[in-house]
Fold this sequence. Notes:
Elements: E1 10-15, H1 21-35, E2 39-44, H2 69-73, E3 77-85, E4 88-89, H3 91-98, H4 101-106, E5 113-120, H5 127-133, H6 135-140, E6 144-145, H7 153-157, E7 168-170, H8 181-201
Parallel strand pairs: 1-2, 1-3, 3-5, 5-6, 5-7
Antiparallel strand pairs: 3-4
Helix pairs in contact: 1-8
Amino acid sequence: MSFIKIMQPYILVLYYSKYGSTKEMAHLIADGAEAAGVAVKIRTVPDIAAVVTEAAPSIPAAGDIYCTLDDLAGCAGLALGSPTRFGNMASEMKYFLDQTTSLWLNGALHGKPACVFTASGSMHGGQESTLLSMLPPLFHHGMMVMGLSNAQPALSNTKTGGTPYGASHVSGTRHEHPLSQDEKLLCAAQGQRLGKVVKKLA
Length: 202
């Protein structure tokens, strides 16, 4: 008698965080997805350096573990997060995405829903352009991109982060501002929305 292992569909929350804001958002989005009844894997990507002197360990000393291509290929939905770097995603996240050609070739992500999120030091630090900069790789992978609906009152009421393109946070130039209540609500709402879509497509 043969046994077939059935994998439970999961959402991959993949992020890079330098000072902790994007990581906190990732976990709030994961909470929202789990509230929708979907399993979640939270993964990050390693730091990169201009000059490599030695190989970094494959497992970080602390925090969320590094993402593998298998984690990405096996997900039923993706929430992708990066801090804002001059109106663009962080090079660490871009480097990871640049390594996903094999998944593009075999269509591993075709038809899967995805969303994006970011944090920046200032209100006009390029949040929306950063969110948009994360979309082209998702389009090339054949993913179905979704944003935040204005059915969420926090999207219209927020005085800090939050955009129709995805959840965002304004951390302050010294990263002294915690996530506002509206920002937290929008993170959870984004995760829950992604979770509901994953369930409908399952």
